[in-house]
């Protein structure tokens, strides 16, 4: 049986739990356009490296990068995930490192969501050790109740409450990444 069941009431069932539409495809696309426009303006005449954090950011990354009209490069990190749980293990591991040199470069990290902030804290330490020219973070979603980091996130798509979300790259036990909208756990 398929574990993702779409119904016309804009709710879905993934791994036997019910989620409802929270941010529509149209709202996401509009916001991604706004974020890209701001980055295009802020980095005019620079050559940044956009670094995506796999797996969750892959859809946001690909939508965002196609709206960037700067001369730019891309690379990816892969970090350990939540496993199949809805709560972070708090134990961040690097599964794939970068292939590029970040020293003296303008670095823009692209994340799907910042929850506890532990992953971003880990990435920031890793990058800043190598003396980039600048370091910035763009995240589509930001759970403001949870974040424990003490640095500012430069570009935020949407601030959301502390609930589990899926779709548009975000998974629940690897399912639901392919959904075009973002869905929230329906309690
Ligand atoms: P953090 O280290 O707690 O900030 O979590 C970062 C990573 O956990 C994100 O890049 C996501 O991959 C994953 N994550 C956090 N919250 C959610 C969620 O609500 N749904 C799905 N994945 C999440
Ligand atoms: Mg992620």
How would you characterize the overall build of this protein?
- The structure is a single chain.
- This protein is an alpha/beta fold and 187 residues long.
- The protein is 20% helix and 33% strand.
- It has 3 helices and 11 strands; from the N terminus they run E-E-E-H-E-H-E-E-E-H-E-E-E-E.
- It has helices spanning 25-42, 58-65, 118-128, and strands at 4-6, 11-14, 17-23, 49-54, 73-79, 94-96, 106-114, 134-143, 155-160, 165-166, 182-185.
- The strands form 2 sheets. The protein has a 6-stranded mixed sheet with strand order 6-5-4-7-8-9, with helices on both faces. A 5-stranded antiparallel sheet has the order 1-2-3-11-10.
- It is globular, with a radius of gyration of 16 Å.
- Bound molecules: inosinic acid and magnesium ion.
- Residues 53, 56, 82, 88, 111-120, 164-166, 170 line the site of inosinic acid (IMP).
In short:
By secondary structure, the chain is of the alpha/beta class. Helix content is 20%, strand content 33%. β1 (4-6) and β2 form a beta hairpin.
Ligand types: inosinic acid, magnesium ion
Mean pLDDT across all amino acids: 91
Largest sheet: 6 strands, mixed
Gap from first CA to last CA: 24 Å
Query: What would you call the structural class?
Result: alpha/beta
Give me the CATH architecture, please: 3-Layer(aba) Sandwich
| Level-1 CATH class name | Alpha Beta
The number of distinct helices, counting runs of at least 4 residues, comes to 3
User: What's the β-strand tally?
Assistant: 11
Say what the CATH topology is: Rossmann fold
Q: Compute the gyration radius: what is it?
A: 16 Å
Low-confidence stretches at least 5 residues in length (pLDDT < 50)? none
Strand content: 25-35%
The total domain count is 1
Characterize the overall form.
globular
Write the H/E string, N to C. Answer: EEEHEHEEEHEEEE
Strand order of the largest sheet: 6-5-4-7-8-9
Helix content: 10-25%
């Amino acid at each position: 049986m398929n574990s993702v069941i779409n119904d016309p009431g804009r709710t879905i069932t993934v791994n036997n739990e019910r989620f409802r539409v929270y941010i529509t495809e149209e709202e996401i696309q509009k916001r991604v356009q706004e974020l890209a426009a701001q980055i295009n303006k802020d980095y005019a005449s620079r050559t940044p490296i956009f670094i995506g954090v796999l797996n969750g950011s892959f859809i946001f990354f690909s939508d965002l990068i196609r709206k960037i009209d700067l001369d730019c490069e891309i690379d990816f990190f892969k970090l350990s995930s939540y496993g199949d749980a809805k709560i972070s293990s708090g134990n961040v591991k690097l599964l794939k490192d970068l292939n590029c040199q970040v020293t003296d470069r303008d670095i823009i990290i692209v994340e799907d969501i910042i929850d506890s902030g532990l992953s971003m804290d880990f990435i920031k330490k890793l990058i800043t050790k190598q003396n980039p020219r600048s370091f910035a973070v763009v995240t589509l979603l930001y759970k403001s109740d949870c974040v424990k980091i003490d640095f500012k996130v430069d570009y935020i798509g949407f601030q959301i409450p502390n609930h589990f979300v899926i779709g548009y790259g975000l998974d629940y036990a690897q399912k639901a990444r392919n959904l075009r909208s973002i869905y929230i756990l329906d309690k």
